[in-house]
Every structure is written in structure tokens, then in C-alpha cells.
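call fold(seq) -> C-alpha cells
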Amino acid sequence: MAPSTWPKVRNMPDQTSQKPAGEGLRADARENRERILRAAREAFAAQGIDVPVAAVARRAGVGVATLYRRFPTREALVTEAFAEELTHCVSVLDEGLADPDPWRGFCTVIERVCLMQAADRGFTQAFLAEFPGQADFALERTRAEERLALLVRRAKDAGGLRQDFDPSDITLLLLANCGVAVGSGEEAAGASRRLAAYLLQAFRADRATPLPPPAPLGLDRIHERATPPHRM
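ret:
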């Protein structure tokens, strides 16, 4: 996403008719799949998405070969593990857009996304990384990015958000929040809330003073940098 370029929100294809992942598996295979996903979510939240796959398999109580059968690539495992959280992120953005006060809606979304990030170390990595071949995940992330762009535009138009706020500033916010939310539990959440409060004060239109030029940190570049090695 180039600085100051906001995408239009498109009507996304209806995905409700798609077969749920894991449907059609035998009961034992389906149980293994859910154990692997549960273990992956726990491991990614604690250590990030580069945790060794063998560690995920051990946590799930299955062999590495079983994990490979269910998830042939790391990308498949990561995107499936974070699919629900990404959908929740889109819901948070929709709630912000539904707020009749655009500035309040913007602030609420920033605060909630920062807390999601503080609670899960893998969240930002998964959101920012590129996963070739994982079309459903990419589509859901595009939905999130487009809604975020609309949220920002509404807050600007309403006069709450400073006019020189740039798309790259969202990336700066995510990277900064990732840096302070290094503790665990309430410690990380408290640091995240304080940082978000500081930044939201700086984002207000009535507090605006001249800024340096935007950093070249469009989400497309961050996606590229954050993409994990293609290995299992």
C-alpha cells in the first residue's frame, strides 16, 4: 500500500458456502487436526510463528509425520491457526465503522487491535507476512486492510484525526506496540494500553504540529519483510 493511497472497500465474495476445513476427515484424524491447531495457536502466541514445527507436534501429542499429513506447509499451519483471529479482527473493524462517532470508532479499534497484538506474539507476524497459495487468508487480510483505510478516512473527514496521518503510520504503530508488549499477561496489556493512549493523543487533529515525511512502511513492504522462510 503506497503512502496516502487508500483502497476502496469492495464487496467480497460470499464464503459461507465453502466447505469448512477438516470436514470429511475420520473422527480420529479430525481430533488430531484440532489438537495440532490448538497447540499451534498456543505456541505461536507465546513464541511467534517461527517456533519449530516439531515443538508444535510435541505440544499436540502427535508425531511430526501426522502434522505434515494435516498441514503440508508451515504457511498452511500458520494461516489456519490464525484464521479465526483474523476474522475477529475484521469484526472489530466493522464495529468501529458502525460507531456514529468516527473518531471514537477509530480509537476503539486501535486500542482493541493493540491488545490483541499484546496477547499474541504471532498475531502481527501472521498479519504482516505473505503466504503464497493461501488465498482465503489473503482475502480476509485484504478485507481488514480496506476496512482500516475506511476507518481512517472517516475519522479524518469528521475532523478527529489529523489530516497528515498516513497509511504507514498504522505500520509504525503495530511495530512500536510489538516492541513494548514483550511481557506476559497484564504486564504486556498495560504497556500496550499506555502506548496506544500516547499515540492516540498524537493522532488527534487538534494536537497536530508539523511532522517529518512519512516513512516508506506501506503494508506491502512490511508483508515482504515479515514473510517467514518457506520451511517446516
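The CA atoms of residues 39 and 60 lie 5 Å apart.
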